[in-house]
Amino acid sequence: MRILGVDPGSQKTGVGIIDVQGNRIRHVHHAMIRTGKGEFDERLHILFSGLCTIIDQFNPECAAIEDVFVSKNVSSALKLGQARGALVAACGHYGLRVTPYSPTKVKQAVVGFGRAEKDQVGHMIRMLLHPPEPCPEDAADALAVAICHAHHTPMQKLAGKQ
């Protein structure tokens, strides 16, 4: 199974793709979609088309995306939600089912501790997947989302959710 993981952001989005066969997980690709600081509608278009290009190239079978969490800045949370919507729409454009995961669940699946720091997630991604090139934080987070989905998919299939 080829899984697409996405760590959404309105200026930079991490993307990670893994292959899963049984209990073996293999790194396929990771990237950053950078939108810059231009007009917001243009940034949403860059996110949509950038993810479409990656999906087109790597043909994942399913997708997982990190949930939006609301911090103190509601305006930022709304923009992040719109960015996430553009990314989910790109997946839907290709008929991919998208499963959301909370940041805590992702960290728990990869590090074993739901409140792990970003550097701990990055370290575990390097240990588990051995990416061939340096992995930016957001791309490592996206790979972690994909791994989280790989860990939860068998349970979901047994429960009849997929």
From TrEMBL:
* Keyword NAD in annotation: no
The organism's superkingdom is given as Bacteria
Cell compartment(s), UniProt: Cytoplasm
Q: Name the gene that codes for it.
A: ruvC
Cited HAMAP family: RuvC
In its UniProt entry, what is this protein called?
A: Crossover junction endodeoxyribonuclease RuvC
Q: Name one GO biological process term.
A: DNA repair
- How does the cofactor bind to this protein, according to its record? Binds 2 Mg(2+) ion per subunit.
Mind listing the UniProt keywords for this protein, alphabetically?
Cytoplasm, DNA damage, DNA recombination, DNA repair, DNA-binding, Endonuclease, Hydrolase, Magnesium, Metal-binding, Nuclease
Give the family per the record: Belongs to the RuvC family.
Q: Which organism is it from?
A: Mariprofundus ferrinatatus
